[in-house]
Amino acid sequence: MHDMEIWNYFIEEDVTPQRNRQIKSLHNYYVRHKKQILDQLVPLFDRFCQNVQLQQQEGHLQKCACIHVSLLRTSLNEGRPVYMLEASGRDTESNVQLTPFRYDAGWIYGFADAWDQACEEKRKHYMNRIQRHSFEAWKTEQLYPFHVYMVHAVRYAMDTIRQLVSFQSIEKDSHFEVRVGEYRDHEVSESVYRVNERQRTSITCKGWLENRSDQEYIYEHMAKVDLSRGHYEGIDLNYARFEEVTLTGSHFGGSRMLGTRFERCVCDQADFRESLLVDADFRDCDLTYARFDRVLGDRDMVVEAHGLVFGLNGVQFQRANLTHASFRDAKIAGDFTGSKLEETDFTGADLTGSRMLERDAFRVTLTKEQRETITWVEEPQHE
Questions:
Q1: Where is the signal peptide (predicted)?
Q2: pLDDT, tens digit, for every residue of 233-247?
Q3: Nearest Cα to 146, choosing from 120, 111, 178, 191?
């Protein structure tokens, strides 16, 4: 075989399977330990936000437009996988300074090191036809499937971080967000939390969404608008956040809602049929008579070609009103604990990985097979 054929064979037969094996192990580790990881991140953010307040009081930082959680690539190359917290204003994006607020992400990059070691053992079998430095150069651009677990961790932690007094006390720009990426490379960073104080009017926002433009709505924040009876079929709302929005009777059929959040929204009679709802969040929403027929909201969906796993949390319906809602033929791992399930229709639904309260076991019409795929949990005791 020619050198390029050998290289391609090495990547396809050795490197990619080894990567996917380590990603699955990392995924399982994160799912088991995400609450402990949360407990590490929150105090760090608390100290950092107190420092940002001090910087603002002393006049060193104006309104904060962005908090960056940045991988320090130099430190990673030296065997110290750390992320740094930094804050910037709208006009000081390029002037961010190194800060002492660091997070050790050894739990992520230990799996990347294990991948590297496994690949090195495989590389030796090729009798110097594949050079170590060539693989090293290639590998540095292939760390995203590992790095994305820092994105997941900070996104998960934001529910708690945004409640911190120190976080709330930061003077923020009208467009504020928290991003996770690499130091000095903000183009590849991802938004994990966004607040837009300059909201569109209901009419303008509805028209904007009904255009259904590509890539236009990802990560967007929409709050306190009435978008009722809109036609949003096929829209891409991945990681968008709706806050106290009225969506009564709106049509979202065939839409993409990976990680989309609906916070205290009114979604009665909304139509989500055949949409992708992986990791979508409907906690505390009114979903009376909503249609979720044939939606896909599975857990642990592996895309081996890219080394990515989707569906870390399942679809969250805690405390939602699902009275008369329909999940016919849906494939969904939903957390229905504390939700109202009167006359909810689960005919033909695959509920593998779902959770419900034991009190609802005989309030909900389910087949024997469906009941066996659900985790039944006791109602939490309130002191």
A1: none
A2: 999 999 999 999 999
A3: 111
